[in-house]
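Self-study notes.
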Amino acid sequence: MGFPLLLILLTGNLRIAIFCGLIACMLPWIHLNIRRQKRLQLLNSQLADSLGIMTNALRAGYSFLQGMEMVAAETPHPLAGEYKRALREMQLGTPTEVALNNMSRRVGSDDLELVITAILTQRQVGGNLAEILSNIAGTIRERVRIKGEIKTLTAQGRISGLIIGLLPVVLLALLLVINPGYIGMLFTEPIGIALLGGSACGEVIGVLIIKRIVNIEV
């Protein structure tokens, strides 16, 4: 509430304050989404090493749960926290399949979902789990490497999308502070409101198109 009231005092225009207040309300969601994506990327980068620990534990004669305990103890966060939570659920009586599926649903990682699917399949039909996890670890490492190369090659496009998305908003905010009367017509005149709405829609469409172009699935 404080930010829109401050804008009303500075600009004397209720519509400008509402517009900027809506933008300010989106910032926490954007920040949360960025943090979630960074956490997911970090978790995916740790997954192959954790599978290596699990594979070595199984080959040394440890059980699957003992291997998970070793992974939880030796893997850094955030992946260690997810393993510890799954182990805690199992210790409280939750079936292993349910605990692993809960872990996959919480994390939302395609790589982790592949690992858990392989583990659950092996528990049903049998097989050498250590060899299965070793092969999956190699696949995940290759995917991480390819994703890194794609990220490097598409860096220019992602930066262009960021500039295209932020530049009009920054310029609008500067004009509101420097000369509210000059830009205020966009919020008071019908044609100004229509132009502002059309510009906002165009910005959103442009950012989504650029994001789809540079977001290459592996």
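Second protein, same conventions, sequence then structure:
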Amino acid sequence: MMVLLTWEPTEAERDQIAREWPADLQSLRQGDLDPGELRTIIPQVEVMVGPVWTIPKDLLSRAPELRLIHVLGHGVDGLLTPETVDLLRGRGVLVARSNPAAIAIAEFVIMSLIALTRRMVTLHNRLTFHGDWSSELKAQRGAGSLGGELYESALGLIGYGSIAVEIHKRAAAFGMEVGALARRPARLEGSGLDFVVPWQDIDAFLKRCDYLVLSVPLTNQTTHLINADRIRAM
């Protein structure tokens, strides 16, 4: 089997590939090939591995043996254009991904929720840039008008992949009610979610949420899924 590595692996990644991949698997690094050499070997490539922006989309039509594209990282919208989707489906090519950044993204989401809820940016600007240390500001903060709590608020997740799973864990630790919008609700049984709503009932789902996180690929089905009308409905 021939695998095309479309990114430049680090030395540690090269060692891991040599140690863990089957011995009969032939891997080539795209960066080691000039354009002519790449076009020559593309018809033999069965698997491509790399970040989405490194996949040679213009050469996919010349890869009749291609069976799998494994994307490193999150987001596949740069690959799944209408033309590419038709080509890959027609040939039965699978697209998979692995995302080592799920925990980092989940922590960023929780940080953002806290910052928004506690109005940290507003408070920081008034205290730091405007020197507003007035008793009025302190009174507002004490009265809770400068922020609330995540506790017992409802977080809605659209998409429940690896990123959403990590967000769920951390939001639950703050005492939030966590739910998900799902195309196949039965698949989320046993997930520990507080509520699961079918995809077609998105408007009812939004009305139940205080906060919303989208962790779905950007596709024709998800583009403009959330618009001004739906935000107003929350």
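Instructor comment on the second fold: The CA atoms of residues 157 and 196 lie 9 Å apart.
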